[in-house]
Amino acid sequence: MRLLRAGGDFSALRRLALVSRKRATSHLPGRRGGVSTGHGIDFADYRRYSPGDDVRSIDWTLFSRLGMLFSRAFQADSELRVHLLLDVSTSMRYGEADKLDCARRLAAAVSWVGLKQLDVVGLATFSDRLHRVLPPRRTKEHFHRLLAALEEVEPRGRSGLTRALRDYGSRAQGGGLAVILSDFLSSDGYAQGLDYLLYRKFELLLIQVVADEELDPPSGENVELEDCEEPRLPRVAALPEVLSRYRENRRAFQASLALFCRRRHVALVQAVTSRSFGELVCQLLREGVWERR
Amino acid sequence: MALLNPAALILLALAPVLLLLHLDRRRKVVHRVSSLLLWQKVGGDGEPRARWRRLRDPLVWLQILVLVAVVVALARPVLGTGAGRDVVFLFDSSASMGALEPGGSRFDLARERALEILDSLGRRDRVQLLQAGPRPRVVTGFLADRPELRRQILALEPWEAQADLPAALLVALSASGDEGLVYVFSDGAGHAAVPPSLQLERVRYLRVGDASDNVAITRLTLRPSRQSPFDHDLFTEVANFAPRRREVTLVVEVGDRVLWSGKLALGAKGRQRIAVEGSLRPGEVVRARLGEEDALAADNRAYALVPPRTAVPVLLVTEGNLFLEKALEVAPSVALTVVPPRGWTQAWTRGSYGVVVLDGFEPEPPGPMRSLVIRPPPPSEVAEGRALRRPELALQAGDHPILASVELGEIAVERASVLAVPPGGRVLLEGAGEPVLVAWEREGRRRVVLGFDVQASTWPQALSFPVFMANTMRWLAPGGEANPVQLSAGEVLEWSLPPPFLGLSQVTVRNPHGSISTVAVTGGSLVFEDTGTTGIYSVRDDAFEATFVVNLFSDEESDIGAATTSPPGEEEAVSERWGSRPVSRGSEVSLHLILLAVLVLLGEWAFYCRRSAA
User: What average pLDDT does the structure give for chain B?
Assistant: First the structure.
């Protein structure tokens, strides 16, 4: 995590900004177009001048043409509330290139980009419940707190998206962009938790962290697979035909998650742990998670 | 194909164990995955199927193939044995086989050799056990049951008697058939030489033992002293069969009384005789023993029994016949009582007589006695009623004991009755072609009928008459003479019980080792064959008791260093002759199987290495 703290890897992210399909709803000023008008640089509309309006906003050209006073209304720049939801269940500690490692580097990158764009960024870690919650802030110290929190993360507990996301959705105020970094392999499924966040007006960005070993698991006559979260579960022999059916299940699961996201206009990105950080950044850029400014 | 050691096949039970080890081997590679969520949807029967899939592993079957090859090799398969052969194991069980050798007795060595050969025979070969003792003894029929044969071989014991090996070999050859094989386990000593006609290629001699250090008591006899009717003369002979000088101590004793004791210096192959005179009572047993031990213990002791004095009570019923009375009085072991016919009933009911002589008289009914009937009055069961005048007598059965040493010569008979021959009867004497002297035995009772009056003939004046009477008494009551009380080992005891004990149906015989056997008595006679052990035997019933002794007294058996079986019959020489003939063992393929197992093992190892590298 020294790389995160040094920030050297993030230098290429300076010109990037998180893409949000919704207008920012915060009343605090930022660099994003908000839903309200005010001081900004983007022209929004004309409206009749009312006494008390800033005389600098009167469009004199229009007055010369129409003989009526109109004020120019600009779209007010607003901040984006970014909620980083990091899955720290035991299943994230998997793969030669650790899934959790990959996830928190991405979380750090997203927070870096968000804070650079004057967004407020918060962090919550969860497994089958919420563990640690850092409310969204925009200060430089907050970024360091975020990095420290990401460094201190230890995998624990079982995956339980529904309860954890419900808890967080009911606790967080003001909506915003919820970036969920998880493998979404939860025994209680992912749909209910995500739907609840959507219900709570969150815009969702799902970053599915996948280890190479999950896409190409080991097999053999003597290989038995054990659930790292539930060692007491019966082991599964990794026979070739079992492996074949696992791949089918994997494809079906992936297709199901993609369909879920497509129907709800939720962005979904699959981050494979074997890819380098740069590749992952490019992938996120390519898939529209963030944009150049 | 046959298996020499089929018991090894039990090791095939390791094959399932090997399979189980493969099915449930502990060396599993456990791989932890993030979640079994997507795996569990595959189905929960992965583990059982995985177990059975392990059986598809060629290594499993290669290892089982190695195991099977090794086990079958241990079972010693033999190819081409066919139906097996009949093999006879003939054990020389003579006294010399009890001689001690460094590895045990000669018989022990013979047993070991026999067991070795038994193990080397084909599974289908059948083996019969024979013992060559005084008489051939068939121990078992032809058996293929190896454990039973081993048990029987281990239970065999030698006798302390001389063996008739040629007779036993003849039995063995007859039993084994033309293609059978006879193994003779012998020390080559003691028995008569095997005739060349029995020295066949299919007879294999296995000689055991070569000790020769033996001193023996070869004679111990008693006879009444000529000087005193109360004393006996005792003769003892001790022989040294060792090829070196020996000095031994001889002790001759009766009970606790030592008759003679002293040291004897015997040169190589030398003998010494000792004569001792002593006062002995009938029934006493004289024991002679050597003080030093040697290779053969059976001839280091000897026994002699002072014979009991017995006489047969004979009842003569006659109106008066001086010739008969005198002839019976001079007959040995006869205690004569003479009564007239009118005193018959009283004499018979009060007395106990072994033989009755009826002169011109026959009671009604004849009675269950042994009798000599002279001139039976008609009607009689043997007298036809016809008479012959001055018949010329002729012997018809000169081999009969009654006519032994009887020379009739010219005997004139005034008148003779023609006799009817009863079933089983034998005509001993004919007059003019008609039977005049008949003898028979029925239900243990012997009868002799003479068809003419001896007083009306010249026979009493001839020498043959008292001989005839003595023979007749001896034949009618064999127990009247002293039964033999001193036998050679293996000799058959034939006793006739004295008259008071004629009704006995059985007696018990206790041998020197203390084992008791019951012997049937038929018509007052008993026959006892099991005299293979030297020592003192006692015969008894509730009211009857007698003793006899058995000694080895065989120079051939005591000369344990001599071999009468010639070397050409021994195993080495014979085995060469058998080299070109098919023997029962066939060809073992154990070595081939072991080589196959090694090759498969190497292949399995190579396969494993290649797969591991992949």
Answer: 82
| pTM confidence score | 0.45
CA distance A285 to chain B (A): 28
SS3 for B46-87, per residue? Answer: HHHHHHHHHCCCHHHHHHHHHHHHHHHHHCCEEECCCCCCEE
| Chain B interface disruption, residue of A158, A187, A222, A254, most B CBs within 10 A | A222
What is the C-alpha to C-alpha distance for residues B527 and B517, in angstroms, rounded to an integer? 12
Closest by CA to A226, choosing from A235, A217, A218, is A235
Which of A211, A235, A236 lies nearest to residue B34, judging by beta carbons?
A211
Is residue B614 predicted with pLDDT exceeding 50? yes
Query: Is the Cβ–Cβ distance between B482 and B504 less than 8 Å?
Result: no
What is the ipTM for the molecules in this complex? 0.72
Which stretches of chain B sit within 8 Å of chain A by CB? 25, 27-44, 46-47, 49-50, 53-54, 57
pLDDT at B82 over 60: no
Residues in Cβ contact with A114 at an 8 Å cutoff, skipping those fewer than 6 apart: A18, A80, A82, A120, A121
Which residues in chain B touch residue A242, judged by CB atoms under 8 angstroms apart? Answer: 39, 42-43, 46
A185/B35 touch (CB, cutoff 8 Å), yes or no:
yes
Q: Other C-beta atoms within 10 Å of B55: how many?
A: 11
Q: What integer pLDDT is reported at residue A5 of this predicted model?
A: 47
Count of beta carbons in the 10 Å neighbourhood of residue B11: 15
Extended strands (E) in B432-480: 434-442, 445-450
Position with higher pLDDT, A277 vs A161 = A161
